Structure formats: C-alpha cells, structure tokens
C-alpha cells in the first residue's frame, strides 16, 4: 500500500458578538421564537436598503490584527448569488474580491512541535437562516432569526496535515476570538462553525489531490472523527483505482460516516458582483490605530506574565489562561486579596473539581471574584479553617453567596478560645486511652485519630495546628 499525506484547510465561520445584525437593527440574541428577530431588511423585502454596522468592521479588524493579517484599508462587499430557502434575498452579501484581512497566520504547538498555519484571508458576511426539517409533517420550515447575523469567515491555507493540527489551530483561534471579545464562540449555539476541505496525495507529491468539503462542523470531537473518516474513504477510493469527486459532503456523527450532498461549487457558479447598495469601506490610519491600541493581552503573553509576575507554576498558568473566564476571575481576585498562589490553588483544585462534577465549562462559572477573595481573606485571618472553607466554597460556586455572611449566619467561625479547646482535648484523651498508649508507643497515626476526634467534637471549627500543639503538650 502506498503512503499518503492528508492536506487540510479550514473555513471557520464566526458569529460576531454585536448587539444588532450586520445591516439592520434587529437583535442578534440567540434563541427566541422563530421569525421574531427579523425585519424587512434581513428578510430581503423589495425596496429595503442595508446600513453597515460599524462594530462589525472593528471586530473584523481586531481579529485580523490578532492573527497577524494585513488589513485592507480600502475594501468592499460583493453579492454571492444562489437560490436557497434560507436566504430570502436569493443572494448573500459577502466579500470576494477585496476582503478586509489577508496574509496572516498563527502558531500552533502539537506535542512540542511548533508550526505556523497560514491564514489566506478573513472576510465579513451575513449569516443565512436556519432550515428545520419536520419528519412528522414531512416538510421543511425556515426560521429567519439568524438571517443577517454578522459573520467573519477565516480561511486558512491548506497547511494542516492531521486532526491534531486542526484541533490545535481551532482551539487557539477560539481563544484568540474570546480574548478579543469579538465572539463567545459557543459551538453548541453555532457561533463557531468549521468547513473542512480535505484531500489526499502520495507522500512526496507536490500537486494537491481532489478535495472534498464537509460543512458546518460544530464540535471538536466530530471534526476529529470526520477528518479521520474522510481520509480513510479517499485512500480506499485511490487504492481501488477510483477517483475522488470534488463535492460537498455531510458528516453524520451518529453513523460515523459522511454522505455526498452536492457537487462542489466554484466562485463562478455564484456569479459574484460588487454589492451595489453598499459603498466601499475606507479604514483611515487613525481608526486603525485606535483599534490597535484597544487590542487586549492574548493568551501567550498572559501566560508569560503570570509566571514572572505571580510566580505560579507553568502548568497552572496554562490551565488558567486556557479560559478567558478563568483568567479574568484569577486577575480580579488577585487584585482584591493579593494572594496569587492561593487564588491559583482554589481555581486549579476546587473549581476544577466542581466543574467536572457539574459537567460545566469554565465560561459558565457564575461566582464573583469578590466572594472568592473574601473566602481567601477569611482563611488568611484565621477565621475559618480549610475544611470549613471547602464547604463554604461549594456554596459560593453554586449560589455565589457572600462567605462572610454565610459563615456568621451558620456559626462556622473558628473557635479561638484555647481554654475551651484544651478542655475538649483533655476529654478526648481521657476517653481514648488505647490511642494515647499507641501514640506513646511511637505510633504517630494515633495522633491523627485524636486530632480527628477533637475536630469532630468541635464540629470542624477548630484550628488543626492548635489541636496538634495542645495534644502534644498534654500527651508529653
């Protein structure tokens, strides 16, 4: 059997986090009853005219700058013509001839090997509606709420050679967009979707093979399986002397296979021409400079700063900066309590444990930096011990309660009366003579038992260090 190389390029569609659509004032909010977030403009009624949303242009420029693209300061929109029920106008406003960004790239790291994935272009366009297939009525319904939601399409070069490289590229791209604030990238809501262009060629060959496209993939796991499935399918075709047909295919994740949808269209099939209802966009040096100055610190720079400024382990810095929500929470909490290592520990251990138990993503964290900082301060001041702190943190995680009020209302403050503590320990020693004898015989575990019994008697509201000290004094 011959050796084959997989060649992959991606077209990533990103819904932008603007409040209104690209050419009208309708809301971009996800959900809502069908056809309630639309108007004559986004449903293509005759006589309506589009008005460009300035924020869409700024978000596209920000994404281009963050992915090392050149910005076309004079660009324009084009009409992409096709008849399909999800586009009532029978055309999509997009950019073919002069996209807003081009010639960029981002660096990925797969198993310690770094590689730059080129970005051919980023262009702005409007989203289409959504088709809903009703098997009961045997019909297809259309919801136009999504029509006109602003998109950027990020078109990579065919530089990826494996599913691992594709996932690394998508994960990095997703983080960049989230840090910029240009999109929430919620794949389950369609805010980030990828079209996979894949071909096979013999190892050492210079020419690309015939590519196929799998559209609208919105799960990293499904993307990895689809790449592997399509790679095997194309290799089998070539091994049996057949040809790969250029076509659009649909990946069925439940059946772990893909199906042909239609022959692949080329640009000429869409009859592109300049959009007559929108003037060209001119991006001044001043405007571009303003957007550059607003660019936030991205993940790679943030990781380096965390290691040097906060002196937290590289692994911890990687996990925390791997989510914008976690990174924001970390920095906001540290700004209040000035205990970076403590904050890192609470995020890395208890927060991660509860996220796993609740099957939540970090972006879904609801508790505030203020309440986490208050908890850390309570521990530092010796007002609660760590056992109680873990109990209180669960309430913070689930309900974002004020830990100071919760500790006070539930009588969880640590007992600081050493006289009461000594009396309790003496009673424990008196009622556990066997453990006392074991300890005096050199069995250190017996001390742990006596500490545990004391903590139980004190309902967890004592300082284990103080218990250890008093116990040793009494037992010696």
Which helices and strands, and how do they pair?
Blueprint: E1 4-15, H1 54-66, E2 70-71, E3 74-75, E4 78-81, E5 91-94, E6 101-110, E7 113-126, E8 130-134, E9 139-143, E10 150-156, H2 163-180, E11 192-202, E12 212-217, H3 220-239, E13 247-252, E14 257-263, E15 273-274, E16 281-282, H4 285-294, H5 299-310, H6 314-321, H7 324-337, H8 340-358, H9 369-380, H10 386-399, H11 403-409, H12 418-431, H13 433-440, H14 445-457, H15 464-475
Parallel strand pairs: 12-13
Antiparallel strand pairs: 1-10, 1-11, 2-6, 3-16, 4-5, 4-15, 6-7, 7-10, 8-9, 11-12, 13-14
Helix pairs in contact: 2-3, 5-6, 7-8, 7-9, 9-10, 12-14, 12-15, 13-14, 14-15
Task: Describe the protein's architecture and organization.
41% of the residues lie in helices and 21% in strands. The chain is built from 15 helices and 16 strands. It has helices spanning 54-66, 163-180, 220-239, 285-294, 299-310, 314-321, 324-337, 340-358, 369-380, 386-399, 403-409, 418-431, 433-440, 445-457, 464-475; strands at residues 4-15, 70-71, 74-75, 78-81, 91-94, 101-110, 113-126, 130-134, 139-143, 150-156, 192-202, 212-217, 247-252, 257-263, 273-274, 281-282. The protein has a 9-stranded mixed sheet. The chain has a 3-stranded antiparallel sheet with strand order 5-4-15, with no helix packed on it. A two-stranded antiparallel ribbon has the order 3-16. Helix 3 links the parallel strand 12 (212-217) and strand 13 (247-252). Helix 12 (418-431) crosses helix 14 (445-457) and helix 12 (418-431) packs across helix 15 (464-475). It is elongated. The mean pLDDT is 90. GO terms for molecular function: ATP binding; glutaminyl-tRNA synthase (glutamine-hydrolyzing) activity; transferase activity. It catalyses: L-glutamyl-tRNA(Gln) + L-glutamine + ATP + H2O = L-glutaminyl-tRNA(Gln) + L-glutamate + ADP + phosphate + H(+); L-aspartyl-tRNA(Asn) + L-glutamine + ATP + H2O = L-asparaginyl-tRNA(Asn) + L-glutamate + ADP + phosphate + 2 H(+). This is Aspartyl/glutamyl-tRNA(Asn/Gln) amidotransferase subunit B. It comes from Anaerocolumna cellulosilytica.
């Amino acid at each position: 059997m011959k050796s084959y190389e997989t060649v992959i390029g991606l077209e990533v569609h990103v819904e932008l986090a603007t409040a209104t659509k690209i050419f009208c004032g309708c809301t971009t909010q996800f959900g809502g009853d069908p056809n309630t977030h639309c108007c004559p403009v986004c449903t293509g009624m005759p006589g309506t005219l589009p008005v460009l949303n300035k924020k869409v242009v700024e978000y596209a420029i920000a994404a281009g700058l963050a992915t090392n693209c050149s910005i076309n300061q004079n660009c324009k929109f084009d009409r992409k013509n096709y008849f399909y029920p999800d586009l009532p106008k029978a055309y999509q406003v997009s950019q073919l001839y002069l996209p807003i960004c081009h010639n960029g790239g981002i660096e990925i790291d797969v198993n310690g090997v770094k590689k730059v994935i080129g970005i051919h272009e980023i262009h702005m366009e409007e989203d289409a509606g959504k088709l809903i297939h009703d098997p009961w009525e045997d019909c297809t319904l259309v919801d136009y709420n999504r029509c006109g939601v602003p998109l950027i399409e990020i078109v990579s070069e065919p530089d990826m050679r494996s599913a691992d490289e594709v996932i690394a590229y998508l994960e990095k791209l997703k983080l960049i967009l989230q840090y910029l604030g240009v999109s929430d990238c919620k794949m389950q809501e369609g805010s980030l979707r990828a079209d996979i262009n894949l071909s096979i060629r013999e190892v050492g060959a210079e020419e690309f093979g015939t590519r196929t496209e799998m559209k609208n993939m919105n799960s990293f796991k499904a993307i990895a399986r689809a790449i592997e499935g399509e790679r095997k399918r194309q290799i089998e075709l070539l091994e049996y002397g057949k040809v790969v047909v250029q076509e659009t295919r649909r990946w069925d994740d439940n059946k772990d296979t893909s199906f042909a949808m239609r022959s692949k269209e080329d640009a000429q099939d869409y009859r592109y021409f300049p959009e007559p209802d929108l003037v060209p966009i001119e991006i001044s040096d001043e405007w571009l400079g303003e957007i550059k100055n607003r660019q936030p610190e991205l993940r790679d720079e943030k990781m380096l700063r965390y290691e040097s400024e906060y002196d937290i382990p590289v692994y911890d810095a990687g996990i925390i900066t791997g989510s914008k929500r976690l990174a924001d929470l970390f920095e906001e909490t540290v700004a209040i309590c000035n205990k970076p290592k403590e904050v890192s520990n609470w995020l890395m251990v208890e927060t991660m444990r509860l996220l796993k138990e609740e099957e939540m993503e970090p972006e879904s964290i609801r508790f505030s930096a203020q309440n986490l900082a208050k908890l850390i301060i309570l521990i530092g001041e010796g007002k609660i011990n760590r056992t109680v702190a873990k109990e209180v943190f669960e309430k913070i995680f689930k309900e974002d309660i004020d830990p100071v009020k919760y500790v006070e209302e539930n009588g969880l403050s640590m007992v600081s009366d050493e006289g009461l503590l000594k009396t309790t320990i003496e009673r424990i020693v008196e009622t556990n003579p066997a453990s006392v004898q074991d300890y005096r015989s050199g069995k250190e575990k017996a001390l742990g038992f006596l500490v545990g019994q004391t903590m139980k008697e004190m309902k967890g509201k004592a300082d284990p260090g103080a218990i250890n000290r008093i116990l040793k004094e009494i037992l010696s």
